[in-house]
Write a structure and sequence with these properties.
Blueprint lengths: L8 E5 L3 E8 L11 E9 L1 H11 L3 E9 L2 H12 L2 E9 L6 E7 L2 E7 L8 H6 L1 H6 L2 E5 L4 H13 L3 E5 L8 H6 L2 E5 L3 H5 L4 H7 L4 E4 L4 E5 L4 E5 L11 H14 L4 H15 L12 H4 L2
Parallel strand pairs: 1-4, 1-8, 2-6, 4-5, 8-9, 9-10, 10-11
Antiparallel strand pairs: 2-3, 6-7, 11-12, 12-13
Bound molecules: alpha-D-ribofuranose.
Alpha-D-ribofuranose binds next to strand 2, helix 1, strand 7 and helix 9.
Length: 296
């Protein structure tokens, strides 16, 4: 694996939120009431997680997102600034409060309900405001917690300027064939392929999008087709506290390795490494590693 001294320039377009994490002895079944044994809040949102993930790995990062005009929005801004993420394109709306996510976690498994709130107000003109940074960026990351219109607009702008684009297709929803074709890599969960691609058979999806679709499961395994054969890589999680934010961490690691010109195989291995670390910390951002954690 090669990581040069050059600093990758990354734009992340997406959500930010405060995650309220409820620890329970078991995940509640439908119509069941359970007691929480602990409750804590953390910084989250797939966009913000990837902004922090790539910044900790040495990238110069612009995050484009939207928060509410409220104390939670201010906390998110301060956190991003503290993580060396540029917040010049994080907008505030008075129409909704800051996004939140309600997470129930038990034995490492997490069930998440996201309230997009202010994240819904991210719009195309916000993306246009950052136009000149699209020119100079190396790579753009998107996920699916802001409107599909904004995601599509972002992808098209990035491709117009010849930039690499990574899509973490979560929360799963149908993505147009045009966008699936346009992006350079797609991270998806194994049980959600039909929703995203309209095709259930994993082999079919992987073969159609070889070296491009990376399917993950919660054992921190990644599978893809390299044009000749199926490739499977697994990195045992260093220590599992919460299985939260692993897809974001994988995407961050993959993106950084790609910016440094590594092979697809090495990008996957590094993504798995980064993902294995995040599950060792509470919440989606605490355990995100720095480059010095790998090479000191
Ligand atoms: O991917 C993990 C994230 O999903 C939800 O968006 C939560 O905010 C959490 O931080």
């Amino acid at each position: 694996m090669n990581f040069s001294s050059e600093q990758p320039k990354i734009i992340v377009v997406g959500s930010s939120s405060i995650d309220l994490v409820l620890e329970t002895d078991k995940l509640p079944l439908p119509n069941e009431t359970v007691l929480a044994v602990n409750s804590e809040s953390y910084f989250g949102g797939k966009g913000a997680n990837q902004a922090v993930g790539t910044a900790r790995l040495g990238a110069s990062v612009y995050f484009i997102g939207c928060v509410g005009m409220d104390p939670l929005g201010q906390q998110i801004m301060r956190n991003l600034v503290g993580e060396n993420v540029n917040v010049g394109f994080v907008h505030e709306t008075d129409k909704e409060s800051t996004g939140t996510a309600y997470v129930t976690t038990s034995e490492g498994n997490a069930a998440i309900v996201v309230v997009p709130a202010a994240n819904k107000y991210l719009n195309k003109s916000h993306i246009d405001e950052a136009d000149r940074y699209f020119h100079t960026s190396d790579l753009v990351l998107v996920q699916l917690e802001v409107s599909m219109d904004v995601v599509e607009y972002t992808v098209k702008k990035a491709k117009k300027y010849g930039k690499k684009v990574g899509l973490y297709a979560s929360p799963a929803m149908r993505v147009s064939d045009e966008i699936l074709e346009a992006v350079d890599f797609i991270v998806a969960k194994s049980n959600e392929l039909f929703i995203i691609f309209g095709e259930e058979k994993r082999e079919e999806v992987l073969k159609k999008y070889f070296n491009k679709v990376f399917v993950r499961d919660d054992t921190n395994s990644t599978i893809y087709f390299d044009g000749t054969e199926m490739k499977y890589y697994r990195k045992n999680k260093d220590k599992t506290v919460y299985k939260m934010g692993m897809g974001d961490a994988f995407t961050s690691g993959f993106a950084i390795a790609l910016c440094h010109g590594n092979s697809v195989e090495d990008c996957v291995k590094f993504g798995n490494e980064v993902s294995s670390r995040v599950s060792g910390g509470k919440g989606s951002q605490t355990g995100l590693p720095r480059m010095s954690d790998f090479f000191s």
